[in-house]
Amino acid sequence: MGWPIKRVDLGVVEYERAARDMREWVVQRQEGRVDDRLFLLSHPSVVTYGPQTRPDELPPETAGLPAIPVDRGGYATYHGPGQLVGYLVLDVRERGPVDIVRWLENGLVEALADLGFATVRRDTPKGGASLVGVWTPDGRKLVSIGMRIRGGVTSHGFALNVDPDMAAFHAFTACRLADVTMVSLREIALEQGKAVPSDAEVRDAVAAALC
């Protein structure tokens, strides 16, 4: 995108706390009190979902996963330990037209390539389900993306499956893609006989590609 973004590393943050903080981060950026920032963190297990998500796409009460409505694009997705979440709070008002989602997809593809994993972004067919995110070449989804622009400033971002409990994805319909397999870097690394990247290594690669 061509402008500096400050990296902010956080630990495990409850989703509700992060959502409250993100609203303040957006206001701070809108008022010019801070620079563009990328927040890297993780959440305890939770399913979040956008306003167009259908009730049948959410986990049942017996799944033990809380489901929280959010003000972003996209549908239902899972957050939990072993997953890297990145929230981007960027001012796009003075940067000219930019496809922020495509820029993010391409940046994450670059980061994963630097870690030794080939991935791709996909174009959504007209009238089809959204294919926003980052995918393996054989069609499994590794990264979910959901963003919002309010007052010229972005919020929300991406969730990259490093080594989460992948069974959680069986309890609901992720991203309104019932026939798509979600995958983690651990699973891909084991298939390819590679070492599983650490959380720190993934954070560094993502920050290098985006900041």
Classification by helices and strands: alpha+beta
**Unreliable residue stretches:** none
- Strands side by side in the biggest sheet: 1-2-6-9-8-7
Count of strand segments: 9
Termini separation (Å)?
9 Å
Order of helices and strands: EHEEEEEHEEEHH
Tell me the β content.
15-25%
Tell me, what's the shape?
globular
Percent helix range: 10-25%
Determine the number of helices (DSSP H or I, runs of at least 4 residues): 4
Rg on CA atoms, Å = 16 Å
Largest sheet, in brief, is: 6 strands, mixed
Mean pLDDT: 92
Report on this model:
The protein is of the alpha+beta class and 211 residues long. Helix content is 24%, strand content 24%. The strands form two sheets. Strands 1-2-6-9-8-7 form a six-stranded mixed sheet, sandwiched between helices. A three-stranded mixed sheet has the order 4-3-5, with no helix packed on it. Strand 1, helix 1 and strand 2 (37-42) form a beta-alpha-beta unit. The protein is globular, with a radius of gyration of 16 Å. The mean pLDDT is 92.
Short summary of the structure?
This protein is an alpha+beta fold and 211 residues long. It has helices at residues 15-30, 100-114, 185-192, 199-210; strands at 6-12, 37-42, 46-49, 67-69, 77-79, 83-89, 134-135, 141-150, 153-161. It has a six-stranded mixed sheet, with helices on both faces. Strands 4-3-5 form a three-stranded mixed sheet, with no helix packed on it.
